[in-house]
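Residues pack. One example:


***
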Amino acid sequence: MVNAVIAQSGGPTSVINSTIKGAIEVLFESPKVNQVLGAKMGILGVLKEELLNISAQDKNQLDLLNYTPSAGTLGSCRYKIKSREDLERIVEVFKKQDIGYFFYCGGNDSMDTAFKVSQMAREKGLELVCIGMPKTIDNDVGGTLQPDGTFAICDHNPGYGSVARNLAVNILEANEENKASYTSDPVLVITVMGRKIGFIPAAARLADPERRIPLLIFLPEALSKVDSQDNLEFIIERINQRLKEAGRCIVVIGEGVNVGDLSILKDSFGHAQFSASGSTAGNLLINYLNGLDRTNAQGRAQSRLVVPGIARAENPGTRQRRELAYVSEVDREEAYQVGIYSARLALEGQDGYMTTIIREPGSYYKVRYDKVALDIVANAEREFPKEWIANNKSDVTDEFVSWAKPLIGGALPEFAKFKEIFIPPRCGEYIPMGYRVSSK
């Protein structure tokens, strides 16, 4: 019998612990495994030999994993393995602690780490099975879109379905607010996570597949990567068009859309950390919409909006990826099954693989679980399909909606909608004083 180590890396999700729970349950039942351990703060916990004894935890605490969001139980990190010394240290710790199975739950960078550990273990003569378990809200781990409407390698990643549901509900709620306040705040700009890939902002369309809400969606892939000024002018043109049509507008913008210098900070992998940057895409956009960069003789900002009022910004930040209230039950179950399948792969001795979710083609949503070699997904990032970006560059297509809808679980909330049945007026037409155009 040998021990198993489970670790998490990168940004968390609201269902990451369901994957951990699935793996733990299978490992607990196996006669091949002595103890199941958890690396405190990801691969750093291995390097520092800080290994929690999961096998010694109370059963009720293990059961709670399925309903515990984020990665606080074990901890996570953004530590990039850059030296042979680190890899040799990892193998040394695994040898001394009698580790035969290593599970790393994370994104493409984590798969690279798992692959390197697997290679070093072979070089050092350690019998170690390394398995990657996918996790990312960005949905950027996997292959390209196939003709049948599914994705190669991994159709979607655990964590995405919940953040997509989170955003869809937020749009429904934001629309109620925007309907109530548009006479003073006609534009609401919502910045969403997703770095340089558009799967998360695209999910806003799930709130309104019939396109009844005056909603604009801007993905990083839809606009220029280099000309921020051109992007701003294009976005403003589209916003003002919607304002002329509806009098109000909700704008969803991916945090990686190029609208100017955000004073971006980066992690050890070189990834932009937008939530820690000097500004956000949404804040830069509302400043431009409100004309803070140009003033009149009295020093007042000159709005670029074609209607009275101001644009407001909403920056949900990291809450998007951790909130338990909006978890997709489909996402939770699939995350759990990924953990189960990963543990079974390991116990079969299949070293050097990442578990994948494969969608079966057809109108009925069904998935199966498979594997892909770690070196194929290590550091590889897919892009949001160009064919799913609407021609107007401010929306996504119905094909995306059909693909994404099953991932968010049950029906979205339904809010009251009054018919605009007014009683007949008895007084003459009146223009409020503040809305009258001065002739001076």
